[in-house]
Design goal:
The complex is a heterodimer of chains A (386) and B (165). Helix content of chain A is 67%, strand content 4%. Chain A has 16 helices and 4 strands. A two-stranded antiparallel sheet of chain A has the order 1-2. In chain A, strand 1 and strand 2 form a beta hairpin. The two termini of chain A are 44 Å apart. Chain B is mainly alpha-helical and 165 residues long. The radius of gyration of chain B is 20 Å and the shape is globular. The chains are: A mainly alpha (386), B mainly alpha (165). At the A-B interface, helix 4, helix 5 and helix 6 of A face helix 2 and helix 3 of B.
Chain lengths: 386, 165
Amino acid sequence: MSGELLGVIVKLLFIVLVVAGLFLPLITWVERKQSAVMQDRIGANRADVMGLTVLGLLHPAADVLKLLTKEDVVPYGANRVLHQLAPVIALVPAIVTLAVIPFGGTYTLGDTTFSLVVADIDWGMLFVFAVGSLATYGAVMAGWASNSNWGLLGSMRASAQMISYEVTMGLSVVGIFMCFGTLKLTEMALFQDQTFRIFGFLEHVFGMAVPGFLSWATLPMWGILLQPLAFILFLTCIMAENKRPPFDAPEGESELVAGYHMEYSGMRFGLFYTAEFLEVPVIGTIVTTLFLGGWSIPWLSTGDIIGGVSGVFGQGFATGLCIVLHVLSFLLKVVFMIWLQMAIRWTLPRFRYDQVMDLCWKMILPLSIANVFVTAAVILLLERGA
Amino acid sequence: MTDALFYLFAAIAVAGALGMLLNVRNTVAGALSLVGTMVALGAIYVLLDAYLIGVLQILVYAGAILVVFLFVVMLLNLRQDEFTPERLRWTKRLAVAFGALVVVELLVLLPRALGPAAEIPADFGGYRAVGAALFTDWVLAFEVTSLLLLAAMVGAVILAKRSID
């Protein structure tokens, strides 16, 4: 029991250190540098310690120091308790989501079996949705509690936008659940650690043998290859949930000054930004687990690695290598997803508010439902052939 | 451990419900304290091994329905003086009547319901068990409910559209 507890603590420390300690400061830096590259500027390079700027890497530390030393203003007529609670409520869901994300597979070392996930629950994906749905309250509380009309307008936009995209976010991945046959995130990642023959459908649907020269052609069973439409829809929805541009209508500084967090200062304001920045790698981990194969390495399954290496270097070394490779593979995919989100964020201008709603209810919702039906039909067809 | 967690979440649920009552004049704060009740109820369901209903409690009630409540409350920005005294009097009478009814029901039914704890089946409360039951044994009820919801949705759209046109 104590070993189990120790394992959970180690995993928690790993998650907090990697995501909050490494990704979070780096993302604020990447955001500045990538926007600078995309806009043909030099970018953050002014924060220095004794003349050393280190590519602007000191800016995250300067930011936090600045925010921590600012006055924490509570506006006149505000609901003090809710005003101070709101930034915390905005931040917590992002961190809690990481509890069910598998950073690696399940390994056996000697006679102990362990998996690199804090809470391996059967309804993992529902947990992600449930926790994500609570994130709405941070924005709603903030705008309402600060006794400001701009804030209230921002809150109302946030609540309408987030609740709309929650519906479509859930629907858009139903096809993925049908393909994987599970809601458990570890099983989803394990499922994607296989490959499928590209021309295997000839055999399943038409009953003809796959020609020999085509039979070697395999692809990893990644969600993005099985459900490409779901990937685009889900990414759109989950980015809209995060309220970052181009979906930042709740902030909309050209219309609402700063939207729901306009009456915040100092670190409480910083917490709202921390929540948004933290969501970026969290979205990366969710999308990676659902669509990019999680920790798996394409064309190189866990069995292949352990079977190939343990003969030469022994079982323990093979397992260790496997863990390192899997975690690196996972983090690499997450970094790719962060880059993609940044690129989208700095490419598209903000949608008008009615466009945000139209996109959700008139585009994504019908496409998601169509995706569910087409997926079901294809699965039925393949099962009948098999 | 389970007992301690139950008392913790039960206390949160009761505190949230009381918070809603004490914030009658401040509708938004009342609705927010109801969120606490809903989340605590979800946790209690999980403690009872009813995982699906627990997570749906948070997803649907805390995460969706109460957000819509809040949205409507903030949109209309209801104030106390918009209720006429007569209407308030009737609301209070109705509330007392229904409250008394619930108390009587609990007093009558609860002593009978408290038997020995039932044995929990292995796949109890998971999404597989609930889904299988919903789409085989209870498929008629499920479809009728969905038809009802569809009718309500179409009705709401028509009513909203009429006031725009």
